[in-house]
Amino acid sequence: MKLKIGTRGSNLALIQTRRVGDQIKTIKPEVEIELIIVKTSGDLRRKTKGSGIFAKEVNQAVLDGDADIGVHSLKDLPTRLPEGLSLVSIPERLTPNDVLITPNGARLSDLPSDSIIGTGSPRRRAEISHLRTDLKFKKIRGNVDTRIRKVESGDFDGLITSMAALERLGLEEKASQKFDFEEVVPAAGQGSLGVVGRKDDEKTSFLGEISDEKARLESICERAFLRELGLGCKAGAGVLARAKDNEIKTLAVLHDSEGRHLVKLRGSDPVELGEKATREVKE
What we know:
The protein is of the alpha/beta class. It is 30% helix and 25% strand. Helix 7 (213-229) packs parallel to helix 8. The longest helix is centred in the first third of the chain and has 17 residues, at 11-27. The chain is globular.
């Protein structure tokens, strides 16, 4: 059986997709994997409304039958999928913390006033501003490798990215500082991979077998928070769920005109917990 996997063409996306392919081969060694490279609106820098600019075209390829499944960084995947698609597997989650990369290894507290930090994320900008009110922010383009080069060449004084991305690229040593979860609350799904497939497709029904149960529970909780919030990745909001021993601990943050609102909750039902975190962080 041949399985066509839709993916973006960046180095990180291909590493992630090949990782999923390897996991599939461990349980279905007879499957022949074919990668289908898809250029997304985000890659082409098109001006599009709404979230999912790095996922839309990959999902459409699955709907159209050009690919059987699509592999995404889960944080890039909208909480409401197109009709006919479902999230069929959460294969793994690496370190979800955000990190700072600087040219000389300086930590956030060491940076001079007016240092320029590269990030296009409202969440990261709001969280870093909470820690340092005297820094400047500028959008930074390109994949992770390109962004790091821009910092090392002096175009930026620092870059905020995820530790999971560095881990997958083998660049962990580039991190100057790993932020604690309460300092910088991650994006929903950060560090996790998400596999999308067509609903009720017998060909891909086995993919639940490669799902990581802990990552699956955490993603359900975090995506429930984001879905209830209704703001998508453009919001100054973050959430992290950690599942252990039949309990889920959740940390959520929201920035608004009144400041930074942080809540900590625990429970056992991931959807109820995520939705409760939304209600409390908005109070």
